[in-house]
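just leaving the lab so this will be short. below you get a single protein, a line of residues and a line of whole numbers that encode the local backbone shape. id like you to explain what the token line says about the fold, in plain words if possible. thanks a lot i owe you, the record is right below:

…
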Amino acid sequence: MSADTSSLADTSSTLVQRRAKHWRLLAPLLAAALVGLGYWGLRWWWYTLHHVSTDDARVKGRLITLSAQVPGRLVVLSVEEGQRVRQGELIARLQPDEYEAQVALHAAALEAARSQLASAEAELELARTTAIGAVERSDAALGISLSQLAEAEKAAALEAERVKASLREKEAAVEEAKARLSGAKATLDKAAVDLERARRLFADGVIAAQQRDQAAAAYDLALAQYQSAQEALNKSQALLAMAQAESRRVQLLLDNVRTRQRQVLESEALKKLASAEWQRVRKQEEVVKHLQAKVQEAEARLALARLRLAETTLTSPVDGVVSQVIADAGEYVQPGQPIVIVHDPRDVWIEANIEETHIRKVRVGQPVEIAVDAYPDRTFHGTVAQIGTATRSEFALIPVGSASAHFIKVTQRIPVRIAVANPEGLLKPGMMVVVGIRVK
């Protein structure tokens, strides 16, 4: 009994010693683990205090899809996937024969339209020159005719007035001469009677010869006065006849006025004809405008044909890399069909989706630390460039709303764009990253 008790005591002592030895070995390890956990916990707490982080982030870039703009057979495809290209470098070419023919056809149509336009413009210039000359000549002729008519009317009016006054004067002179002749005739008749009586009385011895002689002298004087009056009447009548003859000259002048009036009418008719020439000019101007429109239309068609011909050649819009080749040489492609996708490896950014509960801490310009799964030993740096104006769910095909009876509140995320330098081209579009935005 004592031996068993002694054995059990020895066994217990041995177990206690072993446990004590194990604790002496584990205690430092546990202490180190606790210190390490405390350190990393403190670091995590400190990091979360000064950073907003998320692993819902990836590298983005501008993937440019080069598509066919015109239908045709792809005869040249000069790039492969992963190949570097420079801006303006040939990527692909469609068969250009049909489009070259269209360019030639529209170029010929343009030349024909320009030729028609040049001919119409020459005709318009000739018609305009002719119309201007005709109008100027008709204006000059009308002016001359009006001037001559005015002069003829003035001359006729003056001559008619002069002849009228002369006729009145000559008629008055004839009447006066007739009156004088009548008086002289009466005096002559009386002198003849006195002379006859004086002769009878002288023959009877009643009067002396002297008285008879005086009666004869008085008769001779009356006869002379009568003859003078007769001559004056004849002269006055002759002058009146001459004045009446001059009235026929007035008629000639009036005939000249009528002739000038007809000339004025003819000049006015010529001016109307000259004015009618401008109607021809207007019509020709309309023809020129129509042909100008045809030329512009032909130019537009030619420009469109040249554009379509140019669109048979696809060149790289950027210095970059061929991401994907979609079509094959010899394939017939349609407008809008993708052929090649290229992108610039240096033109990348990070798009991170930050929870709405943390977005209030984020500001544009804050520094960002970026961890990339592909390069775990390297940290990239960037800057907050833009904060989104709506959550991602708003751009979903079916936006999340609260109209459903089964509503579950989900923390939404807002996109934040982070600018990052990529000079070595290590960051590829689509890579997943973890970002930490330093907010304090």
